Every structure is written in C-alpha cells, then in structure tokens.
Amino acid sequence: MSQPTAICPNCGAEIRFRWPSAVQTTCEYCRSILVRHDVNLEKVGQVADLPPDISPIQIGTEGVYRNTAFQVIGRIIYSHDIGAWNEWHLMFSNGTSGWLSDAQAEYAVSFLSQPENGWLPAANQVQLGMEYQQQGVRLYVTSLTQANYEGVEGELPFPYWDKERCLFADLRSADGRFATIDYTEEPPLLFLGEFLEFEALRLANLKEFEGWPR
Amino acid sequence: MSKIVPKPKALNCPNCGSQIELRAMGAAASVVCAYCNTTLDATNPQLTILQKFESRMKVEPVIPLGTRGTLKGSVWEAIGFQQRGINVDGTNYFWREYVLFNPYKGFRYLSEYENHWNFITSIPSRPVTGNSAVNRGTASFGGTEYHHFQTAQAYTWFVIGEFPWQVKTGEGVQSMDYVAAPKMLSAEMTQNEVTWSQGEYVTGQEIWTAFKLPGTPPAPNGIFANQPAPAVTGPGRPWLVFLALATLLFGMMIFFAANSRKEQVFRQHFTFQPAAAGEKSLVTPVFELKGGTGNVQIDLDTEMSNRWAYFAMALINEQTGDAIDFGREVSYYAGVDDGESWSEGDKHEDFIIPGVAGGRYYLRIEPETDPPAPGVSALTSSPINYRVTVTRDVPFYFRYLLGILLLFIPVLFMGRKGGNFEQTRWMESDHGTPPGWPSQAGQSDSGDEDDE
Description:
The complex is a heterodimer. By secondary structure, chain A is mostly beta strands. Chain A contains no helices and 16 strands. Chain B is mainly β. Chain B has helices spanning 204-210, 237-259, 397-427, and strands at residues 4-5, 11-12, 19-20, 30-32, 39-41, 49-51, 68-71, 74-88, 91-102, 106-113, 116-123, 128-131, 137-141, 144-163, 172-180, 183-189, 194-202, 263-272, 282-283, 287-289, 294-303, 307-317, 323-337, 340-346, 348-356, 359-368, 384-392. Chain B starts with a strand and ends in a 25-residue tail after the last helix.
C-alpha cells in the first residue's frame, strides 16, 4: 500500500500516513493536530498531556477481526469518573475502517453504521433500559456516560479535536452485540459491533507491562 | 517499538501516610488503604479521598493481595478484597470477594461463602429475563436458562485494595442471583446501570493450588447455590448402571428361554363329578421328567361357567414317594347386565414348580367345589371337564422381570438423594423449593423485576 507523506506545517517533520483516507493525524514530534485539506495539512490544535496509559494496545498493534487483519492507526481518548478509555481507530486490510474500544480491558469492535429507518433516539430522549432494534438485534441502553474528551493520537477518519463534554449511550444485546450512540455530532453517530475476548482478537505488537510476561 | 509500561510507584495514603501499592497498572478506579480503610480515587496520582470510613471489622483475605495464580488458563493477581453481606430476617450473612487482575485480560473476581468458591467474569451482555413455565424468574444467557435464586440488598462491610469501580464501604446494591449449576448469573443494580456477571463454581482445592496457599482448603459448609450435585447423583449415572444390569438380566432371560426344552410330557382330560359319591381324588399315569433338575409347569384348562373349583394336587416321585403339594382355585363367572356382558376370573390356571429332579412321576389330583344343593339347578351338580398338561423345562420369565423391577429400587433411591441435594440447595433461596415446586417462602418471585 502506498504511504502518502506530507510535511508538518508546524515543525517541518515528515508526516507519514498509514491510511490514505485519513482526514486527521497528529505529528509525532511536535504533537500538533493536523487536518488534511487535499494535499495541505492545517494545524488545528495541540495534543495536551495524555492521561497515563493503561491499555496494552498502542498505535501499530495488529490483530484479526472476523478473519480480516487490522492495524491500529489512531485513537480518541475519553475519561469519565472511573478512569480513561480508548477508542482505537482500526485500518483493515480490505481498506475499511473500524473501532476497537478498550475500557478496563473490556474489548469491543464496532463500525460506523447508518441507522435503519434513519432514526436514533435524541439525546434528551435516550434513557436506560430503552430498547432499540438494529439489523434484527434487540439492543438495550445499559449505560449513559457523560465523558470528557481527553485527546487524540494518530490517524482518524474525520476531523476530531477540541470536544468537551460528550454523551454516549451504550447498548447491549443478550448475546454480546454492542452499539454506541455518539451524541457529540449532530445528527448523532451510530456504531454497531460486538464484544470480544482478548484472546479472540489475536493481538500482536502490544505494549509490555513490567513484571507481566505475556 | 514495544515500550514497557513500568509498574506504578507506591504512593502514600493522604489520610494516614502509610504506603499504598498500586497493582492494577492504572486500570483501577479506586484503591482502599489497607491500614485506615480510606477509599481513594486511583485515577489521579494525588489519590483524592473518596470516602473515610471507620471500619468496625477487620477481615484478613486468605489470598493475600499481590498473590498471583493461574486459574482457567490465565495468570491473575489478587488486587482487591471486600467483605459483603446481606441481612435476612435480622441475621447478617457475609461473603468475601476478591478482585483479580491481568493487564491484558482485565478483571475477574472470586467469591467465597462458607468455603464455597466462584470464579466470576462480568459479561458484556444483557441476559433475557422473564418467567419460565415453572413459574420461576429466569435469565437466559448463552443458550442456558438460569432460575431465580435470590434477590437481596448487598452491603459492603470491609474493603482493601483496588477496584475497577468506586467502591464504598456501607453502600448497598440490589443483587439478583440466577442459578444453573455449576454456573450462576448475577445482576447488580445501581442507579446508573445494571451489570451482569457469570460465576462458575470452583473447589477450594483449585483455589489453593492456583494461588499456592499453605495447608489445605477448609471443607465447605452446606450446599451452595450453584454447587454441582455429586457425580453419583448426577443425572444419568444410576440410570446407566440400571440399564446395564437390566440388559444383562434381559439377555439371560432370552438365553435361557431359547435354551429351554419346553417338552410336553403329559396331557389328559378328566371329568369331575361333584354329585358322585365316594373318593374324589385320582392319580394320573406315570410320566417321565427327563434330564437333571429343572422346572415343571402344570396347566389346568377347565370348561366351567359361573362356578368355582379347587384343585389340590401333588407331584409324586414314583421311586421315592416324595410329594410336592400345591393347589389352585379356578373360578369363572360371566353374564350380561344391562346389555353389557361381563366376566370375572379365568378358566385357565398354570403354575411352575422349580427345581424338580429328573425321574418318573405321577400327579394326584383332588378337585373340590360347592356340594350340590337339593332342589338347586343342575348347575352345581353338573360335571366339570378339565385338562391337565405337564411341561418340562419351560422358559422362566417372571424371575427376570422381577429382578429388573428390583433394580429400580436403588435407582429411585439415588434419584431421591439427588432430589434431596436439590431441595437443600433451593431451601436457601427466596423460594424455599426447587423450580417447578410451589414456593414455600414468604417472599414472592421477584426474578423479573428488572424486565423493562
């Protein structure tokens, strides 16, 4: 796969894209947040200090989901009252993009989806226990999370920075399916996916933890 | 490009100053000081105090925090411990929970009550709750239906170490347990969410082996909610033994039936004259019973209607004079009442004499019936025609069928033992009885409260 390159408008370092469709990335050297306009990169912000890293996943981690290989190329970091979590941006070997969320080592893979019938409950409508059917799966709202946007890293499929309070509705089914409604956008975004065991993702190139051989 | 995440540095408790070890590599939400029991926010390095609590009880975990063990194929480190309790009719029942951690695989839990252990995984699913055909709350998960066991308000009494949530001493959550031994499902409800977890019964020995604990595990008391029934009372096992023995008996029956000679050695018609005077007994001609010891079947076929007769008989060995006495009553009544024909009794009787040695024998037969009454119809005075057949070495079904029947007894007994196990298990539940039985306890079935 060709790797388009560009120059950081802030520090002049070379920016190498892993994914040709990336819209946003961060400079590894000066930590500028850069948004792509055709061939030019525009600095839109600066990555603040990220919260301490607790995830075994990092940019460059590789894995497999439903027989398709992926590589982790970016992330969005959120925090709420019991800690931080990551939404890792995945680039699949077939060119599609998806997300691997990792909250306290509970892993789920999801994909941006168009809601059937075009309907999603509005932020002031959504409530715990609410049933929401998608693709024949009965999902129930099991948690509503007011999260803080903490930062971004790497390549993302859309421009995303400088968020503040973010409302997320998490939905679960009886059999491990999963959905998130992201109310930071208007209209809200729907992500559909499933929970997976750590072993099932066949992850490689993970971080290591001192005193914890894998 | 792999970088190693260092073990977090030990910090000092902002309340008492003692050292606090952080073992969850930053994944925990709260940590409780092992010395002053103050709950601290583990998500910031300042360890902001979340709760100060004067714990009235001190409980020592049997798995010391920081101990690692291999359980269910993964390495886990015990990082948190709490004692929780429920209050039933004024009595507190306590159990203990351990938080286990692996930086790649996240959190698992162990619970221990009266030395019964469970390995618990939180499940990212929402089991379907409802009511089953046996009128007991149910929760379905992974193709298994779990039956509601208990709903209770669980309080945290004592805590030390790290937790993936903000643990607070004295706080209560509603918990519901559903059972399908050896597994159980639990739902815990807070204001914001319902979390489900699945427990699997593990033996104390597995825990002792996994964490290399000193000594031997104390024996568990009573029967726990999801304790598997002992193997001998497990479904199938006694029935398999029964099936094997019954098949053996049946095989023997078929074998001996196929090998029996079933040889007719004597048959003769006789007429009994009740009205005749004088000696009523008669002897048959001599017949030979061949071979060694074997059975003999005597068949009596009568032509009687609406009367009875008693046949006293003896099988007598011609050489030795040894007699085997026996007798049979034959009665047969039939008629038509209100247009419906009926009958009672049998014109035929047979019996088997086991273990008769070979030799020459004859039968002595002495029939008896109501004496002919004067003026009564010829019915009671008419002669009775009957036929006697002697058969040597007949197949013998009854003994085997009886044997198979007797085999049922231990099976039923073991089934009852299994039943007792289930009854004892469910005695501790809100319902007092196993699913499918009427509830005995006062508390109503609340297994489906969280549905919608």
